[in-house]
C-alpha cells in the first residue's frame, strides 16, 4: 500500500486529491496538512511514501518544507512531489534543488496524477524530457561548473555516461539502448551514481550533473 501525505492550504483541493487517491486499491492518504510546518511534523509522524506538497503556503512554504524533509535522515524514504498551479517556474526549480523528486501541475489529468504518485513511491521518479530541457535552459546562461562535486572522481566511465544520459531526460530503457546494455544494468549504473553523488533521486542527479560541470548544456 502506497502511503500519501497531502500538504496544501486549500481544503477543497485536498479533498479532491484525497477522494481520487483513496479510490485506488493500492493507495491511501495517511494525513493532511494545511501548511509546510504541519506537513513536516506529519511526515515525521506517519513516514509516508509520497508527500504531495504545494509550493505556496502559509507559515512554512513548500520549498522550505521540502528542504526540511530532505535534510532529515529519518525521512529518507519520503519522496516529495511538488504541486503547483504554474508549470515549471522558479519555485519549482528551487524545490527540486531542495530535494523534491519532481512536480505536478494541479490541472493534470487524474490518470497521469495517479501514475506519478506510483512512480514517485517506487523511488524511480523520472523528469519528463520537457522538464529536463527547462532545467538545461536554466543552466545555459550560467558559467560552467567546476566539476569538483564530492564523489565525481569515484564514478566509473560507464556511470558518467549513464548520468549524462539521465541529464538528457532518458529513461533506463532508453539509456540501455544507447549504451547497448540491459535495462537492469542501466538502472544499476544510475543507482550507483546516485549513491556516490548522494542524490536522492533522478531529479537531483540531473541538477548535480549540470552544477558540477559533468554535463555541459548545449546552447544550440
Notes on the protein architecture:
The protein is an alpha/beta fold. The chain has ten helices and five strands, in the order βαβαβαβαβαααααα. A five-stranded parallel sheet has the order 2-1-3-4-5, sandwiched between helices. Helix 7 packs across helix 9. The model has no long low-confidence stretch (mean pLDDT 83).
Task: Describe the structure using short key phrases.
5-stranded parallel β-sheet; 50% helix; single chain; globular; 220 residues; alpha/beta; 13% strand
Layout: helices, strands, pairs:
Blueprint lengths: L1 E6 L3 H12 L4 E7 L2 H11 L3 E5 L7 H10 L7 E6 L5 H9 L3 E4 L4 H13 L6 H12 L16 H10 L5 H8 L3 H15 L4 H11 L8
Parallel strand pairs: 1-2, 1-3, 3-4, 4-5
Helix pairs in contact: 2-3, 3-4, 6-10, 7-9, 8-9, 9-10
Estimate the strand proportion.
5-15%
Classification by helices and strands: alpha/beta
Q: Over all CA atoms, what is the radius of gyration?
A: 17 Å
Task: Give the H and E element order.
Answer: EHEHEHEHEHHHHHH
Spatial order of the strands forming the largest sheet = 2-1-3-4-5
Mean pLDDT: 83
Ends distance? 45 Å
Number of helices: 10
Shape: globular
Number of strands: 5
Low-confidence segments: none
The percent of residues in helical segments reads: 40-55%
- What kind of sheet is the major sheet? 5 strands, parallel
Summarize the structure.
The chain contains 10 helices and 5 strands, in the order βαβαβαβαβαααααα.
Amino acid at each position: 500500500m502506497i502511503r500519501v501525505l497531502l500538504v496544501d492550504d486549500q481544503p477543497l483541493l485536498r479533498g479532491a486529491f484525497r477522494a481520487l487517491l483513496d479510490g485506488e486499491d493500492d493507495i491511501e492518504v495517511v494525513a493532511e496538512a494545511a501548511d509546510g510546518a504541519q506537513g513536516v511534523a506529519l511526515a515525521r509522524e506517519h513516514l509516508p511514501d509520497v508527500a504531495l506538497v504545494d509550493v505556496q503556503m502559509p507559515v512554512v512554504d513548500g520549498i522550505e518544507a521540502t528542504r526540511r524533509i530532505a535534510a532529515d535522515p529519518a525521512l529518507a524514504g519520503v519522496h516529495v512531489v511538488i504541486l503547483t498551479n504554474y508549470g515549471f517556474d522558479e519555485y519549482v526549480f528551487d524545490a527540486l534543488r531542495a530535494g523534491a523528486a519532481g512536480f505536478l501541475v494541479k490541472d493534470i489529468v487524474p490518470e497521469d496524477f495517479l501514475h506519478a504518485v506510483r512512480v514517485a513511491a517506487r523511488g524511480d521518479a523520472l523528469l519528463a524530457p520537457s522538464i529536463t530541457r527547462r532545467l538545461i535552459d536554466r543552466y545555459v546562461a550560467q558559467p560552467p561548473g567546476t566539476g569538483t562535486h564530492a564523489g565525481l572522481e569515484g564514478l566509473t566511465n560507464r556511470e558518467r555516461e549513464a548520468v549524462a544520459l539521465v541529464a538528457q531526460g532518458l529513461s533506463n530503457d532508453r539509456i540501455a539502448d544507447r549504451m547497448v546494455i540491459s535495462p537492469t544494468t542501466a538502472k544499476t549504473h544510475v543507482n550507483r551514481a546516485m549513491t556516490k553523488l548522494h542524490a536522492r533521486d533522478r531529479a537531483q542527479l540531473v541538477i548535480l550533473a549540470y552544477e558540477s560541470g559533468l554535463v555541459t548544456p548545449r546552447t544550440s
